[in-house]
Specification:
With 248 residues, the chain is an alpha+beta fold. It contains five helices and 15 strands. The relative contact order is 0.22.
Length: 248
Protein backbone atom coordinates (compact mmCIF):
# COMPACT_ATOMS: atom_id res chain seq x y z
CA UNK A 1 0.00 0.00 0.00
CA UNK A 2 1.31 3.49 -0.90
CA UNK A 3 2.40 5.77 1.99
CA UNK A 4 -0.31 8.40 1.36
CA UNK A 5 -3.02 5.72 1.40
CA UNK A 6 -1.71 4.40 4.70
CA UNK A 7 -1.87 7.93 6.13
CA UNK A 8 -5.47 8.40 4.93
CA UNK A 9 -6.45 5.07 6.49
CA UNK A 10 -4.85 5.99 9.83
CA UNK A 11 -6.55 9.40 9.90
CA UNK A 12 -9.92 7.84 9.11
CA UNK A 13 -9.46 5.29 11.87
CA UNK A 14 -8.53 7.99 14.36
CA UNK A 15 -11.55 10.09 13.39
CA UNK A 16 -13.84 7.10 13.86
CA UNK A 17 -12.38 6.44 17.32
CA UNK A 18 -13.03 10.06 18.39
CA UNK A 19 -16.59 9.91 17.07
CA UNK A 20 -17.32 6.73 18.99
CA UNK A 21 -15.75 7.82 22.27
CA UNK A 22 -17.27 11.34 22.38
CA UNK A 23 -15.64 14.28 24.13
CA UNK A 24 -13.11 13.58 26.92
CA UNK A 25 -14.39 13.00 30.44
CA UNK A 26 -12.81 12.03 33.75
CA UNK A 27 -13.77 10.86 37.23
CA UNK A 28 -12.29 13.98 38.86
CA UNK A 29 -11.60 17.64 38.08
CA UNK A 30 -13.19 19.92 35.51
CA UNK A 31 -14.16 17.00 33.31
CA UNK A 32 -15.53 15.04 36.27
CA UNK A 33 -19.06 13.74 36.96
CA UNK A 34 -20.51 17.11 38.01
CA UNK A 35 -19.74 18.49 34.54
CA UNK A 36 -20.35 15.44 32.33
CA UNK A 37 -23.60 16.82 30.94
CA UNK A 38 -21.85 20.09 30.05
CA UNK A 39 -19.05 18.41 28.11
CA UNK A 40 -21.29 17.10 25.33
CA UNK A 41 -24.96 17.51 24.47
CA UNK A 42 -25.16 13.74 24.11
CA UNK A 43 -24.54 13.49 27.87
CA UNK A 44 -27.77 15.25 28.82
CA UNK A 45 -29.06 12.23 30.75
CA UNK A 46 -26.10 12.48 33.16
CA UNK A 47 -27.80 15.44 34.85
CA UNK A 48 -31.43 15.21 33.71
CA UNK A 49 -32.09 11.47 33.93
CA UNK A 50 -34.22 9.93 36.70
CA UNK A 51 -32.85 6.38 36.51
CA UNK A 52 -29.14 7.06 36.87
CA UNK A 53 -26.52 4.65 38.23
CA UNK A 54 -24.92 3.94 40.64
CA UNK A 55 -27.22 4.10 43.66
CA UNK A 56 -27.34 3.40 47.38
CA UNK A 57 -29.13 0.05 47.72
CA UNK A 58 -31.50 0.13 50.66
CA UNK A 59 -35.15 -0.75 51.30
CA UNK A 60 -35.08 -3.63 48.81
CA UNK A 61 -38.16 -5.86 48.72
CA UNK A 62 -38.07 -9.61 48.25
CA UNK A 63 -39.36 -10.68 44.84
CA UNK A 64 -39.90 -14.43 44.71
CA UNK A 65 -40.47 -14.21 40.97
CA UNK A 66 -36.83 -13.28 40.35
CA UNK A 67 -35.15 -16.34 38.87
CA UNK A 68 -31.44 -17.14 39.34
CA UNK A 69 -29.18 -15.45 36.81
CA UNK A 70 -28.02 -17.96 34.20
CA UNK A 71 -24.44 -17.51 33.01
CA UNK A 72 -22.70 -19.33 30.19
CA UNK A 73 -19.11 -18.16 30.13
CA UNK A 74 -16.52 -19.27 27.59
CA UNK A 75 -12.83 -19.23 28.51
CA UNK A 76 -10.60 -17.43 26.05
CA UNK A 77 -7.96 -14.75 25.49
CA UNK A 78 -8.74 -11.19 26.58
CA UNK A 79 -7.34 -7.71 26.06
CA UNK A 80 -6.79 -5.31 28.95
CA UNK A 81 -7.19 -1.64 28.05
CA UNK A 82 -5.97 1.24 30.22
CA UNK A 83 -7.96 4.24 28.95
CA UNK A 84 -6.58 6.60 31.59
CA UNK A 85 -9.69 6.23 33.75
CA UNK A 86 -9.87 2.52 34.57
CA UNK A 87 -9.09 -0.94 33.24
CA UNK A 88 -11.51 -2.49 30.77
CA UNK A 89 -11.28 -6.15 29.81
CA UNK A 90 -12.47 -6.85 26.27
CA UNK A 91 -13.55 -10.44 25.61
CA UNK A 92 -14.25 -12.61 22.59
CA UNK A 93 -17.94 -13.14 21.68
CA UNK A 94 -19.83 -16.12 23.05
CA UNK A 95 -20.28 -15.61 26.80
CA UNK A 96 -23.91 -14.98 27.75
CA UNK A 97 -26.35 -14.09 30.51
CA UNK A 98 -30.02 -15.07 30.63
CA UNK A 99 -32.19 -12.90 32.90
CA UNK A 100 -35.89 -12.00 32.94
CA UNK A 101 -36.38 -13.95 29.72
CA UNK A 102 -33.72 -11.95 27.86
CA UNK A 103 -30.45 -13.35 26.53
CA UNK A 104 -27.49 -10.99 26.67
CA UNK A 105 -23.94 -11.33 25.37
CA UNK A 106 -20.94 -10.23 27.44
CA UNK A 107 -19.13 -7.24 25.92
CA UNK A 108 -16.54 -6.29 28.54
CA UNK A 109 -15.62 -6.04 32.21
CA UNK A 110 -14.47 -2.91 34.01
CA UNK A 111 -13.02 -2.25 37.46
CA UNK A 112 -13.85 0.59 39.84
CA UNK A 113 -12.44 1.97 43.10
CA UNK A 114 -14.31 2.35 45.32
CA UNK A 115 -17.34 0.26 44.37
CA UNK A 116 -19.94 2.23 42.45
CA UNK A 117 -23.09 0.99 44.20
CA UNK A 118 -23.37 1.27 47.97
CA UNK A 119 -25.38 -0.90 50.36
CA UNK A 120 -27.04 1.10 53.12
CA UNK A 121 -24.52 3.86 52.56
CA UNK A 122 -21.43 1.66 52.58
CA UNK A 123 -19.12 1.22 49.59
CA UNK A 124 -16.73 -1.71 49.20
CA UNK A 125 -13.07 -1.31 48.20
CA UNK A 126 -13.61 -2.16 44.53
CA UNK A 127 -16.08 -3.71 42.15
CA UNK A 128 -16.05 -5.41 38.79
CA UNK A 129 -18.89 -4.67 36.39
CA UNK A 130 -19.79 -6.89 33.46
CA UNK A 131 -21.55 -5.16 30.58
CA UNK A 132 -23.96 -7.30 28.54
CA UNK A 133 -26.06 -6.46 25.49
CA UNK A 134 -28.94 -8.33 23.84
CA UNK A 135 -29.41 -8.81 20.11
CA UNK A 136 -31.99 -5.99 20.05
CA UNK A 137 -29.76 -3.56 21.95
CA UNK A 138 -30.97 -3.95 25.53
CA UNK A 139 -28.16 -3.54 28.07
CA UNK A 140 -27.54 -5.14 31.46
CA UNK A 141 -24.78 -4.75 34.02
CA UNK A 142 -23.82 -7.44 36.52
CA UNK A 143 -21.76 -6.05 39.42
CA UNK A 144 -19.64 -8.00 41.89
CA UNK A 145 -18.56 -5.89 44.85
CA UNK A 146 -15.06 -6.63 46.15
CA UNK A 147 -14.11 -6.43 49.83
CA UNK A 148 -10.59 -6.33 51.22
CA UNK A 149 -9.05 -9.59 52.45
CA UNK A 150 -5.57 -8.52 53.53
CA UNK A 151 -3.60 -11.57 52.49
CA UNK A 152 -5.85 -13.65 50.24
CA UNK A 153 -5.42 -12.72 46.56
CA UNK A 154 -8.38 -12.99 44.23
CA UNK A 155 -7.37 -15.72 41.76
CA UNK A 156 -9.30 -14.30 38.81
CA UNK A 157 -7.83 -10.85 39.43
CA UNK A 158 -4.31 -12.27 39.77
CA UNK A 159 -4.53 -13.71 36.25
CA UNK A 160 -5.27 -10.22 34.89
CA UNK A 161 -3.05 -8.09 37.13
CA UNK A 162 0.04 -10.00 35.99
CA UNK A 163 -0.45 -8.27 32.60
CA UNK A 164 -1.81 -4.92 33.83
CA UNK A 165 -1.08 -2.01 31.45
CA UNK A 166 0.03 0.80 33.76
CA UNK A 167 0.18 3.68 31.28
CA UNK A 168 -2.84 5.50 29.82
CA UNK A 169 -3.93 4.55 26.31
CA UNK A 170 -2.05 1.26 26.31
CA UNK A 171 -3.31 -2.30 26.18
CA UNK A 172 -2.13 -5.80 26.98
CA UNK A 173 -3.19 -9.05 25.32
CA UNK A 174 -3.51 -12.17 27.47
CA UNK A 175 -3.42 -15.38 25.45
CA UNK A 176 -4.15 -17.61 28.44
CA UNK A 177 -7.68 -18.95 28.86
CA UNK A 178 -9.49 -16.42 31.10
CA UNK A 179 -13.01 -17.17 32.38
CA UNK A 180 -15.13 -14.31 33.77
CA UNK A 181 -16.91 -16.80 36.05
CA UNK A 182 -14.04 -16.26 38.48
CA UNK A 183 -15.62 -12.93 39.39
CA UNK A 184 -18.94 -14.45 40.48
CA UNK A 185 -19.60 -15.09 44.19
CA UNK A 186 -20.50 -18.58 45.39
CA UNK A 187 -23.89 -17.33 46.65
CA UNK A 188 -25.50 -15.51 43.74
CA UNK A 189 -28.40 -13.80 45.44
CA UNK A 190 -28.78 -10.35 43.90
CA UNK A 191 -30.50 -6.99 43.92
CA UNK A 192 -32.07 -5.73 40.71
CA UNK A 193 -33.14 -2.26 39.59
CA UNK A 194 -33.51 -0.08 36.51
CA UNK A 195 -30.53 2.17 35.94
CA UNK A 196 -28.15 3.63 33.41
CA UNK A 197 -24.64 3.41 32.12
CA UNK A 198 -22.40 4.82 34.87
CA UNK A 199 -20.24 6.63 32.31
CA UNK A 200 -21.11 9.22 29.64
CA UNK A 201 -23.50 9.38 27.88
CA UNK A 202 -25.29 7.87 30.96
CA UNK A 203 -27.83 6.07 28.77
CA UNK A 204 -30.86 4.88 30.75
CA UNK A 205 -32.89 1.71 30.34
CA UNK A 206 -30.04 -0.47 31.64
CA UNK A 207 -30.95 -3.40 33.89
CA UNK A 208 -28.61 -3.71 36.89
CA UNK A 209 -27.93 -6.88 38.86
CA UNK A 210 -25.75 -6.41 41.95
CA UNK A 211 -24.68 -9.48 43.91
CA UNK A 212 -25.54 -9.34 47.60
CA UNK A 213 -22.37 -11.17 48.66
CA UNK A 214 -19.00 -9.60 47.80
CA UNK A 215 -15.94 -11.37 46.52
CA UNK A 216 -12.45 -10.62 47.84
CA UNK A 217 -9.51 -8.50 46.76
CA UNK A 218 -6.15 -8.60 48.54
CA UNK A 219 -4.36 -5.54 49.90
CA UNK A 220 -1.61 -5.84 47.28
CA UNK A 221 -4.11 -6.23 44.43
CA UNK A 222 -6.01 -3.16 45.60
CA UNK A 223 -2.82 -1.12 45.93
CA UNK A 224 -1.69 -2.14 42.45
CA UNK A 225 -4.91 -0.71 41.04
CA UNK A 226 -5.11 2.44 43.16
CA UNK A 227 -1.53 3.40 42.36
CA UNK A 228 -2.75 3.85 38.78
CA UNK A 229 -6.31 5.07 39.41
CA UNK A 230 -6.94 7.03 42.61
CA UNK A 231 -10.68 7.25 41.90
CA UNK A 232 -12.47 5.37 39.15
CA UNK A 233 -16.14 5.42 40.10
CA UNK A 234 -19.11 7.72 39.66
CA UNK A 235 -20.73 9.22 42.80
CA UNK A 236 -24.08 7.84 43.98
CA UNK A 237 -27.17 9.08 42.18
CA UNK A 238 -30.69 9.85 43.43
CA UNK A 239 -33.02 6.85 43.16
CA UNK A 240 -36.04 9.10 42.48
CA UNK A 241 -38.24 6.51 44.17
CA UNK A 242 -37.05 3.54 42.10
CA UNK A 243 -37.95 0.12 43.44
CA UNK A 244 -35.12 -2.27 44.26
CA UNK A 245 -35.90 -5.98 44.17
CA UNK A 246 -34.02 -8.73 46.02
CA UNK A 247 -33.87 -12.31 44.78
CA UNK A 248 -33.43 -13.73 48.29
Amino acid sequence: MRPHRILVLLLATAAMAVAQSGKPWEYQGKQGPVNWSKLDGANRACSQGHEQSPIDIRGAHLDKNLAPLEFHFISGPVTLLNDGRTITVNVDPGSTLAADGVRYELKNLSFHHPSENAVKGKLTDMDVEMLFQSADGKMAVVASRMSLDLDQPNAALAALWAHLPTKADTSSKIDDMINPAGFLPADRGYWSFEGSLATPPCTEGVRWFVFENPITVSRDQLRTFTRIFAVSSRPLQDTHGRKIAASE
